[in-house]
Amino acid sequence: MATLEIKTAEEFKTLAELERQASRRAVRETPLVQLILRFFVDRGERIPVDDIVAAFPGSPPGTIREALIGLDDDDVIRVRDGHVDITYPFSASPTPFVVSPAGGDGRYACCAVDALGMAPMLGRQIQVRSRCHHSGVPLEFSVAPDGPGPGAKGIMLWFGKRGDEPCKVADSL
Q1: What is the pTM of this model?
Q2: What would the mean pLDDT of 21-44 be, rounded to a whole number?
Q3: CA-CA distance, 62 to 2, in Å (whole number)?
Q4: Mind listing the domains of the chain with CATH numbers?
């Protein structure tokens, strides 16, 4: 006998959000987004749109620019003043979350969750530096691809549910 699962309207809204998240994860595997992520790993700064267009010499520049606009509209990247300045999990602007691969320069993460996710994304250990949002005490610990190291013991990650604000998450950093 099949089980009938009854969902509330709020649960149905959550399903739509999960579908949106799955779509965003899939688009991150495209060559365009992979290139942007590599630029952030390599450079750690705003990426000129012209550099991205130039990296696809066989594609019409207008097609690449339209794709970037679409990615911005879908909140996968943020384009400002002819540069990509955010592609989750990276921010070109300073944030409270600095992530450094072993022996590498620091990169800014958009949020604490993004900072923790960089180790599995990069497939290597990283150092996370931040401050307690309540006390201001400096925090520093390592994160391996399989999770935080012993230096993270006692550190808690707090996050809330995103509201219905029209702005993108990164605009509120």
Answers
A1: 0.78
A2: 88
A3: 51
A4: 10-88 (1.10.10), 94-152 (3.15.10.60)
